[in-house]
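Usage

Read records sequentially. Each one opens with the input sequence:
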Amino acid sequence: MKSFKAPKASLGSLDAEATGALIAAATDVAIVLDAAGTIRDVAFSSEDLAAELGRGETWIGKAWVETVARDSRPKVEDMVREQRGATSHRWRHVNQVGAAGESVPILYAAWPLRETGGRIVFGRDLRPVSQLQQRLVEVQQSVERGYSQLRQAEMRYRLLFQMSEDAVLIVDGANGKVIEANPAAQQLFADTSRRLVGRSLLDAFDGESRGALQAMLGALRGTGRAEEIEVRLPGGGSAEIRINGSTFRHENGLVFLLRLSRAGPDGDAILLPRARQDMLRAVDSLPDGLVVTDAEGQVITANAAFLELVQLVTEEQARGERLDRWLGREGVETEVLLSNLRNRGAVRLYATTLRGQLGGQVHVEISAAPVLHGGDQRFGFAVRDVSARLRPAAVRNHSPSPGRSVEELKELIGRVPLKDLVREAADAIERLCIEAALDISGDNRASAAEMLGLSRQSLYVKLHRYGLGDLGADTMERD
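and closes with the structure output:
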């Protein structure tokens, strides 16, 4: 620490009042201690700090160590015991206890008073620094979250890019070279002798196709849109490749995203990896029915198990037909399923019935999910026959019976006609009213009948119907 060279000459003779005013002005908080470390006086230059510390009104006469947080007491004891002749005075971070019991961070340093043997403690408010540090931490966390989201987005992009069954190429818009190619694209060009990535896109196709491909890339570069084209691979192959593309910007440069598929009788057929082909064969052999429909519920394809459930012989008989031809009540349940798929994205274990072409009927559970195919929406349905799992009693319970609860009535929606459900709901309400009347009248059937506006004989008939109370022969006589 460097002091004034000639303080007596430069500062002159300062009295106690002037010295106290200078000390109070030079620091946020100043504390005067006696030789035992007890607080004798306190001064504040910061009004905010003074208010938060209660202006030190309860400090006078207390040991300084008793006014700080427990974790800061060893630091305060060290400062009080510091040698009086020390020429270096360390600043220590101390958590001072505020008026409301909270910790207030203050940077303290203590200087000895030679005449009294006490000390004067100077404090600097660290709250602005703490707030700045907190903001820095929050900004760092926000940046880390941003980087984490970017990494996750890149990971999802990579995973989608690698697992896509469509052949996809990413091409540099400036030089026309392939930047990336997913495994499906590598398989599509497996017969070519040169590596695809880093190669000019035009070189990957037959010479007669390059003009059309170059025109397509020019249209993408100029307008961002281009018509789908058909090109051929080199080597005189007869197979045609369909290409459609779009553009996006990356690092201030233009990039083409191209989707390739083999042109064939099915139009959208693509070359699938062997594992995918095996999975499709397994799906076609599953005992559960699987069917794919368009957005309107018309069948596009179905496996053998579904054809067996609806008593059809060939897939052509099902293709183009609406699913509600066989599912539940025609025109009702299929719309419910499609609506849920559009709004919620999936349906799980929907219980209903499936009607066969020859009049058979089975109880089934349906799970379904939407899929996209070339930008068009499709719905996939998994249909499981659960007839063998249902107990005969459970099947009989599908017919209306009096006294059902509300939850039981809800379970029958879609399986029982509306008029039967309404009748059951009316029966349930009637039973509740009779039970309430009996309870109010203390089980006096004459009074209950009067409350309900019924004759006693009508009440007895309803009691017998709902199985309420003891309806022996002596009951009428007692009433």
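Summary fields computed downstream for this record:
- Confidence is low (pLDDT under 50) at residues 391-402, 473-479.
- The chain is about 40% helix and 25% strand.
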